[in-house]
Design a protein that fits this description.
Distance between the termini: 39 Å
Order of helices and strands: HHHHHHHHHHHEEH
Keywords: Membrane, Transmembrane, Transmembrane helix
Helix content: over 70%
Transmembrane segments: 94-125, 161-179, 231-254, 266-287
Largest sheet: 2 strands, antiparallel
Strand content: under 5%
Structural class: mainly alpha
Radius of gyration: 27 Å
Number of domains: 1
Number of strands: 2
């Protein structure tokens, strides 16, 4: 769990420790406000009050999104991440913004989903009690216990799915920013490798740069594979242990033909929710696999133009895995790496079987 902890917890704590004092924050905000005010006045003819109000809102948004209240020099100098200490401030800022958005969305989903689940279970057991005439007090107690247990199981399943998806999105976004920094360098290397008049000195510089990208890509893949085995192993285990038996039970109940319309709709909603949570958990993994293979766009033109046999052999495995496979990223038993095609096939098969 060290890698997710480094990107999520330590990164957030370091931002909290680099907050400027109130005087500096007011001065920075006022400077940005004055600059924006000149821009608003030069491009609009609205009344002064409306212009100032709009400028204040725009300045507040910029102030929060660009993290002007953070001491960037202190952050880049003293507070660094463990695994990637030289990552730029912008990537770390995006991680914090994504983390805040995910936390807010998860809170809203929990507030909305919990009453709906309670209502569905209550209506279902109410109809079941009326059908079998189970109106005695001890039957109601057992019904209440079962409702609470199933609601907690569904809530835990949803929580595990959203937690895993959130962690995957944060780490996938970080890898996306990191790999996007390599793409311009790879493109430049590809263009200059194809050029005839490239000097030997420049070729040596490009070989060193390519070697650094190769080393960082391999390190990134190993770290992610280790984080996947440590962080998502327990999450996936809990999610599968709870959700799959419930999903199978609901499917068998739907196929029994003894349910009424409302009960059938309740079971169908459960199938849909399970499918959505499963896809939300799998799609970020697919995004991670695609992100790790972004460097393959320029490699087919770079590797054949390398003159040294030793370097060609060095990049042979990297080149082969990116172009032909097996793919980098999480692997599920004999199914191979998790891709968008695999996720789509699973969604179609699950939906088709339930219907």
């Amino acid at each position: 769990m060290l890698y997710p902890y480094d990107l999520i917890v330590r990164n957030f704590d370091q931002f909290q420790q680099c907050i400027l004092d109130d005087d500096q924050k007011k001065r920075i905000w006022q400077t940005r406000f004055d600059h924006n005010m000149k821009w608003f006045i030069g491009r609009g003819h609205l009344p002064r009050m409306i212009t100032e109000f709009a400028c204040r809102i725009w300045t507040d948004c910029q102030y929060r999104l660009y993290f002007d209240h953070i001491d960037k020099q202190l952050m880049n100098g003293k507070f660094r991440l463990v695994y990637f200490p030289y990552i730029e401030f912008r990537a770390r800022r995006y991680l914090i913004i994504l983390q805040i958005l995910l936390n807010s969305s998860f809170f809203v989903l929990h507030v909305i989903a919990f009453p709906i689940m309670c209502l569905l279970f209550a209506q279902y057991y109410r109809g079941l009690a009326e059908q079998f005439h189970m109106n005695r007090w001890y039957n109601k107690i057992w019904f209440a216990i079962e409702v609470i247990t199933l609601t907690d199981a569904v809530y835990t399943s949803v929580e595990c799915g959203l937690l895993g998806a959130g962690m995957e999105l944060i780490i996938g976004a970080f890898h996306y920013f990191l790999i996007n920094k390599w793409n311009p360098s790879l493109k430049s290397i590809r263009i200059q490798m194809n050029a005839i008049n490239t000097s030997q000195r420049r070729r040596c510089q490009m070989n060193r740069e390519l070697s650094k990208i190769h080393r960082d890509h391999g390190r990134l893949s190993k770290i992610y594979r280790k984080a996947f085995s440590e962080a998502w192993g327990s999450i996936l285990l809990v999610y599968l242990m709870i959700s799959i038996p419930m999903n199978v039970s609901i499917i068998l109940l739907l196929r029994s033909g003894i349910l009424e319309t409302f009960e059938y709709m309740s079971g169908f909603v459960g199938i849909v929710v399970h499918t959505i949570i499963t896809m939300v958990l799998i799609v970020p993994m697919c995004f991670e696999v695609e992100t790790l293979h972004q460097t393959k766009k320029d490699l087919p033109a770079i590797v054949p133009n390398i003159r040294h046999i030793r370097l060609k052999l060095k990049y042979d495995d990297w080149y082969g895995r990116l172009i032909h496979g097996p793919k980098y990223g999480p692997v599920i038993a004999t199914l191979g790496s998790i891709t968008y095609k695999m996720a789509l096939e699973e969604c179609i098969s699950l939906s088709g079987y339930s219907l």
